[in-house]
Amino acid sequence: MKDLKHLIYFEDLLQEAQNELVNQAVSEGKYALGYNCYYIPEPLLNLPGCFSSRLRAPRCTSTDVANYYMTTRNCPYARSILERAIEGGYNYLSALFGAESCATMERAEEHFALLKPVKHEGFFTTIIDPPMKGDANNLEYYKAQLKMKVVDELAKHLGVDVSEEAMRKAIEDHNVISRVITEIGDFRKLPNPPITGYEFHVIQLVSEVCPHELILPYLEETLEELKTREPEPKFPFRARVALVGSEVDDPEFTKLIESCGAMVVADRYCFGSFPSREQIEIFPGESAFDAICRHYLHTNQCARFMDGMKIDQRHREVKRLVDEFSADGVIYENMKFCEFWSYEKVLASHIFVNELGIPCCTIEKEYALGAVGQLRTRFQAFIESLEIKNIQGGK
User: What's this model's pTM, rounded to 2 decimal places?
Assistant: First the structure.
């Protein structure tokens, strides 16, 4: 296929957290607001005068300093974020809005307050206690947490407009970029898509780490380009897979899977487009703030949710994506030392294979994509099994 016009530019934007568009927005007087987790609603960080910046630590290969504060036996993503902060990689931030999505992440976020690694005047850290169930009582608790520790903090520290009108505008803007990303992602449903999983991964990531108003024109132009882009004469992959699980913010991981012969057609993982690029609807008689809280609690697929309703929802969502994107199987990953997703992975794999008839490959990964020989072997063996199953008519 012909190269996408802006792909190299998008890849360059992902080389640093403080990229060219981030610098432009900050120079224009915008507040950069960092966050780590879907529990923090993106629209609340894109109120007037602000922009959201989902934190990554690209090309972080060592966490020696962070290990001193957190030990080596916990999530490498959280350690990498702290390491990059200590290195000065987030000095553009005006605030960090954290969530106790797990104890390790909370520990890393606490160090942003204790060590004060971000050298930015007025920088502050706030951490919500997110719910573990999705019922009405937990929705009220979630709303109270977001009101006290996000909305009120924005108004108090930065003087941000948190009115109903401002929140409705933030939802409108969120829905615009979400529609563009969703339409781009829907090309992956085609038998021979005009986009690869790697290209989509890059596109989705830049929509999360760059100011929306600055990256949107490039995304819209890419969408129009894809409408007339000619795919390869023959589908160049041996299988189609859905990538599911915990944190994945390195497109090279998707490229590794695709180099083994399987196109990644759906992305249900932290940093993925499901559920982060779904439309937010405001119901009649509902405030914009209530709509945001309801939407994020309902669509959240985090393994931290322990009630049966949310566990079943996670499995149904993966089954839906497998069906809609015609995936032959699922690659289920979790970050090394991640308790929530490692437990969830075992249960989900059993249900997919034995109850839903979906082939599943489970792997554990480091944050930095280092030695890939073992992963490549696992992926190649799984893809070969999918290929054999297709030859045998799905048996």
Answer: 0.97
